[in-house]
Specification:
The chain is an all-alpha fold and 410 residues long. 78% of the residues lie in helices and 0% in strands.
Length: 410
């Protein structure tokens, strides 16, 4: 229901802004630009779905091997103490907890191509437990908010962009991104827990949060001890070695269980095409709405209004120039990436604005894209509190990014 209102708001806001530009500024190109954006966004949505087909087939096939080989069940048993607290409606030791872990691990390592198929697989498992098939369940919402909060331990692509644009130290945003995305994820968990009345003050969750905090601290320490010019190579190598070891581990587990690994892969891969086709309408809807909003100039109006309000309050407004990246990220990952590059090009990769845009890019994820694809893949139309909790996590990530960047680079 909330997605319905947001989608309508995109179009109505775009129409009002376009009328203002036409009547008061005489901009005759605004409506043609809006219509052109609907065609280009529709094409992009189809291309994304088509591009996902092969990746979905690959990873759904690998997951099927993992299921038959017993690997997913092992992950489920290991994570059961924590997941029983965060996902109290999932039966203890249920295989879907293994799928959830695989998706979150891929996200944390920045392996986007692997994370999406694994996430769709987890959503299918959660839908099997869902008594109301058209309505998001509590475990689905917690899972999706963990995704939209964008917890990433290795922001490889951002560091690569900084290197390409001439940053003196491409990795100097690594620690700020890690801290900002950690606060975003923590805020998301707290928001969902309040809605669902989950008690976070128990020993299991506190120990796990403490362990994650130590892990984050350890990663920060490690990357401070290696040469800066080698951080990108180490990050990329570690992520890809982990990914390949995962595939090999699943295959070896299948051999150990004496299953036909090839047939298991084919059976799982067959679902890849149908899943990719099923999400096309949802992708078209959300991307066209975002495209119309951008083409109308509504984003520029919003940024200008925020800048004037900040200046009127007497607050330092240096961060406003980087805000387009922050506001675009929940809507479009590629759009936010383009705005991040634009900020570094216009202000310099080592400027405060350029660095802040990078931290914005890494602190959250594409909330509306994730909700559209994941819910669309299983036919859920009533999202309940998924959108407000996801946006709260995004807002916390944005605020954390601003304060952290002033601390590190201000």
């Amino acid at each position: 229901m909330i997605l319905n209102y947001i989608w309508i708001a995109f179009f109505l806001t775009a129409f009002v802004v376009a009328l203002i530009r036409l009547i008061f500024w005489g901009d005759m190109q605004v409506f043609p630009e809006i219509i052109n954006s609907t065609f280009s966004s529709s094409k992009t949505a189809f291309e994304i779905s088509l591009g996902l087909t092969g990746v979905l087939s690959l990873w759904l096939g690998i997951m099927k091997i993992g299921e038959r080989g017993g690997v997913i069940s092992v992950f489920s048993r290991l994570l059961s103490p924590l997941f029983c607290k965060l996902f109290p409606e999932i039966p203890k030791g249920h295989p879907v907890t293994g799928s959830i872990f695989m998706n979150l691990a891929a996200n944390m390592l920045g392996l986007d191509n692997a994370a999406t198929p694994l996430g769709l697989k987890a959503m299918e498992g959660l839908q099997e437990l869902n008594p109301r098939k058209d309505t998001a369940s509590n475990p689905m919402i917690m899972f999706l908010v963990l995704n939209t909060s964008g917890l990433t331990l290795v922001p490889i692509s951002i560091m690569v962009y900084r290197a390409q644009l001439g940053a003196a130290q491409p990795t100097d945003v690594f620690v700020p991104i890690l801290l900002a995305t950690f606060f975003s994820t923590l805020a998301g968990i707290i928001a969902v827990s309040i809605y669902q009345r989950i008690n976070l003050l128990n020993r299991t969750i506190l120990i796990c949060l403490g362990g994650i905090s130590l892990l984050v601290a350890g990663i920060i320490y490690f990357f401070h001890t290696v040469p800066r010019d080698r951080i990108d190579a180490y990050s990329t190598t570690f992520a890809n070695v982990f990914l390949f070891l995962l595939i090999i581990g699943f295959i070896l587990a299948g051999i150990h269980k004496r299953i036909n690994v090839y047939d298991a892969f084919i059976e799982g891969a067959k679902d890849g095409f149908s899943t990719a086709v099923r999400i096309i309408p949802y992708l078209v809807a959300i991307l066209v709405g975002i495209g119309v909003f951008r083409a109308s100039g509504a984003m520029e109006f919003l940024i200008e209004g925020i800048g004037r309000a900040i200046s009127f309050c007497g607050i330092d407004s240096d961060f406003v120039a980087a805000l387009p990246t922050a506001l675009m990220k929940p809507l479009s990952g590629s759009g936010a990436r383009g705005l991040m590059v634009d900020a570094m090009t216009a202000y310099g990769a080592d400027s405060f604005v350029g660095r802040l845009a990078c931290v914005f890019q890494g602190s959250t994820d594409t909330t509306f894209y994730i909700l559209a694809v994941y819910f669309g893949s299983i036919g859920v139309v009533k999202t309940r509190h998924a959108v407000p909790c996801g946006l709260l996590a995004d807002f916390a990530g944005i605020l954390a990014a601003i304060f952290i960047c002033y601390l590190f680079f201000g």
